[in-house]
Write a structure and sequence with these properties.
Blueprint (H helix, E strand, L loop, with lengths): L1 H23 L2 H35 L2 H12 L41 H7 L2 H8 L5
Length: 138
């Protein structure tokens, strides 16, 4: 029996050492690092594609015709001796253009009187009017 125990000690020691190494090895950290590397790799490939697209755009804009077209469209620039004439659209206008707002019919306007702060200030004393004027300080 003693001989059998001696033969099992060496394989059990090796198995125990392997088990300790496996248990101690940080698998979760390794997996997290692999996923981070995959994300960074995807970002690098996306940036590489964007860089290629920008290089292509730069090559297309390096011609004098493209530069002139860009200057006219984006910056409203013209060559020396030319004039820039802006043609307004066909009445649609833009939201901020007061000229594009339709006129109001005089029949649709109703007259309203307000009895708001103006009548209140007329009845109030001097100091209450000063206090209400300086209300923004509160």
């Amino acid at each position: 029996m003693h001989r059998v125990a001696q033969r099992l000690i060496m394989p059990l020691t090796i198995l125990t050492a392997i088990g300790l190494i496996v248990a101690w090895f940080p698998f979760s950290t390794l997996m997290n690092q692999r996923s981070q590397m995959a994300q960074v790799s995807a970002q690098i490939s996306m940036l590489h594609r964007q860089g290629q697209a920008l290089e292509k755009e730069q090559r297309s804009l390096s011609t004098p015709e493209a530069t002139e077209r860009l200057a006219r469209q984006e910056y409203q620039l013209v060559l020396p001796g030319q004039r820039l004439i802006q043609v307004l659209d066909n009445g649609q206008g833009t939201a901020g253009d007061p000229g594009s707002v339709p006129l109001v019919s005089p029949l649709g306007v109703s007259s309203t009187t307000t009895s708001g702060p103006a009548t209140h200030h007329a009845r109030a004393g001097f100091w209450s009017r000063v206090a209400s004027t300086l209300e923004f300080w509160r």
